[in-house]
Specification:
Shape: globular
Largest sheet: 6 strands, parallel
Number of helices: 6
Distance between the termini: 15 Å
Strand order of the largest sheet: 3-2-1-4-5-6
Helix content: 25-40%
Number of strands: 6
Structural class: alpha/beta
Radius of gyration: 15 Å
Length: 183
């Protein structure tokens, strides 16, 4: 299983993207995801979406964007098996979403839920994220390998201590993985 963060890994992180018109794939990401599918990996997106708790967009708006993203990826041969999102933030504006939860990365809840629901071996899986919190979530969940890529997000820093390797983007990471599957 390939766990992928969304903002900064699949799409350009433009802060709280919630409309399809604003969504822009990271160059090379769609092709990289297609290559992973062709290599036999199922793709699962795990994404923090604090804009929901902050009242910046609704669950319905989030779902419209997610459906459009999944349809575009499926059309390109990069079908996504599932998308898990965390709508919470401890400093949110929407009362029912203003909680300290077990699914907001760096907590492992989304990954653990996906593994349970999809019957995934976490030890045989990998995660690609763009922030230290993505790597921390992978480690806490017991994901076998965790890689970090650079993005425009301020949290995408040089702190790659916990990552197995760092890459410039998803395409670079996938090229490395598929040339050396033991990486």
């Amino acid at each position: 299983m390939a766990f992928l963060d969304r903002d900064g890994v699949i799409n350009l992180d433009r802060a709280y993207v919630h409309k399809w018109e604003e969504f822009e794939f990271v160059p090379g990401a769609v092709e990289a995801m297609r290559r992973l599918r062709e290599a036999g990996y199922d793709l699962v997106v795990v994404t923090n979406q604090s804009g929901l708790a902050r009242g910046m967009y609704s669950e319905a708006e989030y779902q419209v964007l997610t459906d459009a993203m999944c349809a575009a990826l499926a059309q390109a041969g990069a079908d996504v098996a599932a998308v898990y999102h965390c709508p919470h933030h401890p400093k949110g504006q929407v009362v029912e979403l203003t909680v300290d939860c077990d699914c907001r990365k760096p907590a492992p809840g989304m990954i653990l839920r996906a593994a349970k629901e999809l019957g995934v071996s976490l030890a045989d899986s990998f995660l690609v994220g763009d922030k230290p919190s993505d790597i921390e979530a992978a480690r806490a969940a017991g994901v076998g390998r965790a890689y970090i890529v650079q993005s425009d997000n301020a949290e995408s820093s040089g702190e790659h201590v916990q990552a197995d390797a760092a890459f410039k983007d998803l395409a670079d990471c996938v090229a490395h993985l598929l040339s050396d599957p033991s990486a």
